[in-house]
Amino acid sequence: FSISNEAVVGLLKGVASILGRFPKERIKEDMKKLCLVQVSHIQKLIEENIPIEKNTKSDPVVWLDRLAAIFRNVNPIVQNGEQHPCQEVVMEVWPTLSLAFQRYSSDLRVMEHCCRCLRFAVRCVHQHSAPLLSPLVEQ
């Protein structure tokens, strides 16, 4: 059966919200699994130079929106001095986002969704996004 991307994004929002309440070690592991599913599709589109068909699985916007939904809705409580459980995941996702920025630089629609995804990734980890600033500036 077929499920709409809107429904998938809704499910990911719910899963991410629940994930944010898990113990920190579990958040890190499960967040990585959840994000890597989306990232692997983006990587495949870039590596295989698959032409974009809007609102299909060959549209990077589909995967970027799913990734953005995860980052936007995982909100673990992190005490001062604690490492954010999503920081490592954001750093692992960055190289793929960077490639997407390069590959789709001429496509305004995709770039808008790349920026949105990055914005939610940075918001997700707040001040723990500092290690991302240098590669981001160099981009």
From TrEMBL:
Entry GO CC: cytoplasm
Pfam families: TPR_TNPO3_IPO13_4th
Annotated coiled-coil segments of the chain: none
The organism's place on the tree of life at top rank: Eukaryota
GO biological process: protein import into nucleus
Matches recorded under InterPro entries: ARM-like, Importin_beta-like_NTR, TPR_TNPO3_IPO13_4th
Gene3D superfamilies: Leucine-rich Repeat Variant
Designated name of the protein: Uncharacterized protein
Organism expressing this protein natively: Cherax quadricarinatus
Taxonomic lineage: Eukaryota, Metazoa, Ecdysozoa, Arthropoda, Crustacea
